[in-house]
Amino acid sequence: MQMKDRVWRNHEEVFRRNCETLIQPEDTLVLVGDNSFGKNPTDCEPDMQYMMGLPGRKILLRGNHDKYWDAKKTNALNERYQGRLNFLQNNFYPYEDFALVGTKGHCFEGPFYLDRKGRILGWDEKNEEKSKEQVEKETGRLIQSFEAAKSAGYRRFLMFLHYPPTNILEEESSFTKLAEEYGVEQVIYAHSHGEARFYDSIQGEFHGIEYSLVSGDYLRWKPKRIL
């Protein structure tokens, strides 16, 4: 717990300094969710001001804690912060010859039932069914993102998720299958915090695609260079 406290201490300032050191005005910074705990745009305004103050073009993904942003508000948010922040959902953003596509995603996180040695004996099947419904919604949104990019002529993709692409029981998922179907070159995700959770999902090369965890505490608040 003390280690976690040290990692998170003044993390906004640490991240800001690292961004100012590493990111140029012409660069693109993708923030992969949980950008504000505010419940509406007014509550979120200090966080939005913070992100607008970071260098480069900023693209935001929706996280599970971003209650101010639901599926119907993306266009309104893009209009409100036009030219300052870009919100990625059911759309895409270009970067050179790549299309940046993404969605919040979802994966089943339990509860799991363990034995004394920590081995999984079972899980809450009702909770799992609810998770499957969320996965279906999020894969649909991701397909919209891919198809918008394809319609614009893009054939190279970087895919961003907030949730990991798989849970601890899965070797593949709807999200990994979509990544392979569309020929994605990299999948970047977050959500997993604390050393015990860092390796819950795929890292490194899998089926020819590079998977990267970019949670702030995992990277010690240093932005990861993707390209």
Could you describe the 3D structure shown?
The chain is 32% helix and 20% strand. The strands form three sheets. It has a six-stranded mixed beta sheet, with helices on one face. A three-stranded parallel beta sheet has the order 1-2-3. Helix 6 links the parallel strand 8 and strand 9. The radius of gyration is 18 Å and the shape is globular.
Task: Output the keywords.
227 residues, alpha/beta, Purple Acid Phosphatase, chain A, domain 2, 6-stranded mixed sheet, 3-stranded parallel sheet, 6 helices, 11 strands, 32% helix, 20% strand, globular
List the helices and strands and how they pair.
Blueprint: H1 2-8, H2 11-22, E1 28-31, H3 41-52, E2 57-61, H4 74-80, E3 86-88, E4 93-95, E5 98-103, E6 112-114, E7 120-123, H5 125-151, E8 156-161, H6 174-181, E9 186-189, E10 204-206, E11 209-213
Parallel strand pairs: 1-2, 2-3, 5-8, 8-9, 9-11
Antiparallel strand pairs: 4-5, 6-7, 10-11
Could you tell me the strand content as a percent range? 15-25%
What global shape is seen? globular
Query: What structural class do helix, strand and pairing data support?
Result: alpha/beta
Give the biggest sheet.
6 strands, mixed
CATH architecture: 4-Layer Sandwich
The name of the CATH topology is Purple Acid Phosphatase, chain A, domain 2
- Cα end-to-end separation: 34 Å
